Amino acid sequence: MMKRIVHAACVALTLATSHAWAAGLRIGIQEDPDALDPATGGFFVGRVVFAALCDKLIDIDRDLNFAPQLATGWTWSADNLSLTLNLRRGVVFHDGEPLDAAAVKANLDRYRLAPESRRKAETKPISDVEIIDPLTVRLRLAAPYAPLLAVLADRAGMMMSPKAMAALGDKIGSAPVCAGPFRFVRRVAQERIELARFDRYWNAAAVTLDSLTYMVVPDGTVRLVNLRAGALDMVERLVATDIKTVRADARLRLITSPSLAYQALVINTANGPRAESPLGRNAKIREALDLALDRDAINRAVFDGEFLPNNQSEAPNSRFFNAARPAQARDVVRARALLKEAGVERVSFTLTVINNPTDTQLAQVIQAMAGEAGFDVRIEALEAAAQVAATGRGDFDAAILPWSGRVDPDGNIAIWIQCDGFINFGKYCNKRIDDLLAAARATSNVTARQALYREIADIYLVDRPLLFLYHAKWLWAATDRLDGFTPIADGLIRPQGVRLRD
Predict the structure, then answer these.
(1) What is the pTM of this model?
(2) 13 and 158, same structural domain?
(3) What is the per-residue pLDDT for 132?
């Protein structure tokens, strides 16, 4: 094991130091992203890269308010059935093509209609995109849709060059052409992604770095070794147990932020033959697994007590949290009794995880806890893309999966449990939940939405198609020469304002 870690560190050091661009920022990332195409991408780390590559129509600020980016303003119609966007003047894509209303329509229509798009569910309420003038578009809706601004502040709001999309089609992710502060240079799979500053960026004065290089280093210990050795300038998702090391090193800075992100244990309840198991078929057995888990102990053992144990898609401090249904305390006796009530003594299943040390340790703690309650858990560690592929085709019993979180509560739950949710890998489907989600999207009244999302939690906390484990805290570490980074609860690394001192 130690030889493998040392070898990985040497490889990463060689890769990082081979780059010669001046004033470049080298960022250690935990996984290699999937396609660099907002229409098809699904990895959180892809959004980290997109933050420098692809500006969105709308962004969010540190207080989680919506903020102008490619759109300078927006207006809802009185009936909430249309949203008019005013576009920023003078913006060009990395290929020099103008960003105008026609470009916005081309992108939104692709997200809504293209066969390859994974954004169809979140853009489904958009019935038409109307060009009002070169810098004004109107999105017409089939029904009121409260999460729309949040959708446009995510991948579905990222704009790519229509000329490049026409030339490359569904291969656009191999050479993305956007309108962000940095342009795509090259990608070496499982090693690095290189971006260079775009001199014609609309907010060029906010960008001082010449380049960004994202180095793929799955092992958090190795990422930190590279940072301390000077081969990286910044690392994302610092391992919580390494916080003390960073604080003790005067050459480093620890940067933290509250997080919208959480981790869930997803169970295959209806996706192919592997759902035909006691765990997949019986909610009582899933309840037993839930009762076998001690979320506080998991937080202490794996995350040094830094994270927030939780059983819902909204954090306990969220106004949409269902306070009447907090996480139950661990109860091994009750868990074993539930298995007996279900007619079984022991239940076996395979738990798939991404093959990084933190997720593997998390799986091992769950394995030990579940074992005491009557579950025989086999751990299968896969590379991130392989895990997503396996869960997508139903080749799993249960899987530990992350979600980076969204500002609107719809974006934190519908994706998992709506019948056509884009990462509903277990294919759980409850018509009542779909109706409640639709009702919550149709109103902007906070009190009404609170009641609806709490009723949704009442249902999934009984059916347990997935078990939420904790809400994370964003942890970055950087050289003390780095200034100007603004941490935001979505966990992205926005390069505007970031600089490296000599």
Answers:
(1) 0.90
(2) no
(3) 98
